[in-house]
Write a structure and sequence with these properties.
By secondary structure, this protein is α+β, with helices and mostly antiparallel strands. About 35% of the residues lie in helices and about 20% in strands. The radius of gyration is 24 Å and the shape is elongated.
């Protein structure tokens, strides 16, 4: 059940008159997460739930699905036809002018822009001003409990170990002249996940050059490259404990199947490392100093390092993403490229810092997770300082 009083307190602090949730066929998972309704039930008819900044919440449900919102408090109104819905919706929203919804102006933050354009039109027809719920969502859906932080740290210890074991496995097979393919290494990692109680929504990335120049390369059975001596191996691995409400851990490391890393690779890694570390330090120093910062500012710090080094056009994605019960969570992203994410970095949220440079011949990315506390921030796992020479 949602903490109605806490939501109302935040609405008043934000000078928002109410928060309108609506759903149909479970199109808005944020609503299910915050209200605690999940994805249960048929939801074949539209429902609306309004939390005013003061007073009792109100709900509007269809007559054949009157139990859709039984798990949340509030006075219920019921409709059957569209004309009745249009008549009752203004009553549901009575007393408020500025209404928050899962709406993002110009769809700037697609994770939040879940309400359809027609519903936006319908609410505006009631003379309401719709504002984004982005910061509300971050506070009530993206923040972690102490148990979730503990699950992240435990998953991190397991995944850090599996990552190093995966590099060692590739190196051992190369020494034995039995090269393993990218796909086979990916599947081996998944086997280790299953044995260690870790789950993932999507399989990890194992990539050698030039495939590691593609940030979202997916090795496929029968269509991936063998991993041989002299290869640069990138492992992007994410997972969480197979436990209710657990959260993800998500990292990227690179290793070289040789005794000495070529300078062409080492040079690019040093630039990426500097961008990563500068972004982390910016977050840490800002929070320690009590300064409010936004996702786009963190991205700008990392991106400027890579731009000044002459590789700006090869850094083709945002610096980082929110992490939660899904790999990509609903908190602030470290992004001034794909969007200008102006959400504040708030306490008890976690995000990745993962700059990369992707050249036609090869790509390098280095990824860590950063947890923001009340006045501090920390990297939650092992930090790579140089490309691993796997045959040293």
């Amino acid at each position: 059940m949602p903490d109605i009083q806490a939501i109302q307190k935040e609405l008043r602090a934000s000078k928002i008159d109410g928060w309108l949730f609506c759903d149909h066929h479970h199109r808005d998972p944020i609503a299910g997460n915050i209200l605690g309704t999940g994805s249960n039930g048929m939801a074949t008819r539209r429902w609306f739930y309004f939390i005013p900044s003061r007073g009792e919440p109100r709900k509007l449900v269809h007559r054949i699905e009157q139990g859709a919102l039984d798990s949340v408090p509030g006075r219920m109104m019921v409709y059957s036809g569209w004309e009745e819905l249009h008549k009752l919706l203004p009553k549901l929203l009575a007393g408020g002018k500025a209404i928050a919804m899962q709406y993002s102006p110009e769809n700037n933050i697609p994770y939040i822009g879940l309400v359809d354009a027609g519903t936006v039109e319908l609410v505006r027809k009631s003379k309401k001003k719709i504002v984004t719920s982005a910061d509300l969502v971050q506070k009530f859906e993206a923040t972690w409990s102490p148990d979730q932080l503990a699950s992240h740290l435990e998953a991190g210890r397991i995944i850090d170990r599996i990552t190093q074991d995966a590099f060692e496995r590739a190196a051992t097979l190369v020494r034995q002249s039995q090269p393993i393919s990218e796909f086979e290494l990916q599947q081996w990692i998944l086997e280790q996940f299953r044995a260690s109680g870790v789950i993932t929504s999507e399989p990890p990335i194992a990539a050698v050059q030039p495939n590691n120049g593609n940030p979202h390369y997916e090795p496929k059975d029968g269509a991936s490259r063998p991993i041989r001596a002299g290869d640069l191996v990138l492992l992007d691995i994410w997972g969480k404990l197979d436990r209710k409400a657990s959260v993800y851990y998500d990292i990227t490391w690179v290793g070289y199947l040789g005794a000495r890393v070529p300078e062409s690779y080492a040079k690019i890694f040093r630039i990426v490392r500097q961008a990563r570390d500068s972004a982390v330090e910016f977050v840490q120093e800002s929070l320690a100093g009590g300064h409010e910062i936004h996702g786009w500012e963190v991205d700008r710090v990392a991106r400027e390092i890579i731009r000044k080094a002459g590789y700006g056009k090869y850094f083709v994605h945002r610096t980082g993403h929110s992490i939660g019960q899904e790999t990509h969570g609903n908190g602030a992203n470290m992004d001034s490229l794909e969007t200008r994410d102006d959400r504040k970095i708030v306490p008890r949220t976690c995000f990745s810092i993962e700059p990369g440079i992707y050249l036609p011949e090869f790509g390098i990315r280095s990824e860590v997770n950063v947890y923001a506390g009340e006045n501090s921030a920390r990297v939650t796992g092992a930090v790579q300082t140089e490309i691993l020479p796997l045959l040293a």
